[in-house]
Backbone:
């Protein structure tokens, strides 16, 4: 039987055959360990009925395993050089649709309509290019896609920030942004040795389970996210100081104190101690008092 793509031997053969050189600027670190891929697919909750969207198939290491375990897969790859290689390495699988496109430019809603059945559970699974992890994930979340989960290999430190709870050093506006849309959990840490070439940062697998409805009621989402970012602008400063700075020209100190009092939040606290519920109250209170 033929060897999987996700092995050092097979990967080297493919790289040599096509004289492929890695582009660091595209975050190309390919997985060469089938066990890790099996774990990712199990954590993602993929079954034979599932529809899967992959971002950045590379030479097809993860794509192949997804094709084996799911009903069908669509994969967005930005690097034109990889398209003919993927045609070759994934020859023999008839349930994969390769799309040559920058995921940040892609109409994912349309791709879902065109490739999946309405009754299929759809999951996103990827070993992401680390240089654009946050833009990719925030695009996918903001677009409110009809998906069940997103399971991704990303930089360990970014995974920790996305899954962080209040009062921890990783907690910040990114935690709130991600957890507004999902339940976020770091499901495993991954050693550098399973990649070719080895990345110079540590990696984790993050699972995001999409929430049916937002966990808090906010009057204006953009206003809420902007205010959260303002509260963390200078981490060591108090909430009151960060807000005073942010609202210069809109609200004076006395207004800010009054609004904080009205919702029962102590301005001497730091942003990192506020829960999402408290941030929602805060944003709604300021939103209502704008002119
Ligand atoms: N999935 C493969 C694996 O696990 O071996 C490759 C993962 S590699 C970390 C990231 C992949 O994303 C590369 O193939 C890269 O060319 C691709 N990529 C980078 N930027 C992209 C973008 N904006 N849209 C789609 N793919 C992109």
Residues:
């Amino acid at each position: 039987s033929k060897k999987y793509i996700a092995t050092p031997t097979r990967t080297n053969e493919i790289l040599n055959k096509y004289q492929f050189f890695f582009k660091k600027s595209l975050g190309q670190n390919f997985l060469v360990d089938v066990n890790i891929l099996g774990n990712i697919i199990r954590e993602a909750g993929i079954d034979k009925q599932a529809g899967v969207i992959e971002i950045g198939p590379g030479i097809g290491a993860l794509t192949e395993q997804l094709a084996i375990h799911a009903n069908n897969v669509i994969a967005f790859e930005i690097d034109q050089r990889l398209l003919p290689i993927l045609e070759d390495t994934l020859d023999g699988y008839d349930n994969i649709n390769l799309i040559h496109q920058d995921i940040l430019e892609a109409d994912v809603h349309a791709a879902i309509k065109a490739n999946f059945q309405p009754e299929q559970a759809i999951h996103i699974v990827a070993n992401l290019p680390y240089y654009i992890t946050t833009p990719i994930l925030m695009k996918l979340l903001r677009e409110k896609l009809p998906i069940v989960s997103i399971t991704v290999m990303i930089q360990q430190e970014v995974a920790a920030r996305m899954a962080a709870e209040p009062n921890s050093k990783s907690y910040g506006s990114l935690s709130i942004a991600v957890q507004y849309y999902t339940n976020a959990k770091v499901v495993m840490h991954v050693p550098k040795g399973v990649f070719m070439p080895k990345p110079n940062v540590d990696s984790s697998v993050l699972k995001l389970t999409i929430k049916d409805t937002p966990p808090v009621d906010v009057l204006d989402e953009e206003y809420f996210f902007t205010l959260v970012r303002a509260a963390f602008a200078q981490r060591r400063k108090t909430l009151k100081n960060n807000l005073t700075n942010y609202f210069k020209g809109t609200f004076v100190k006395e207004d800010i104190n009054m609004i904080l009092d009205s919702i029962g939040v102590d301005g001497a606290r730091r942003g990192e101690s506020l829960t999402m519920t408290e941030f929602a109250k805060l944003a709604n209170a300021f939103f209502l008092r704008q002119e």
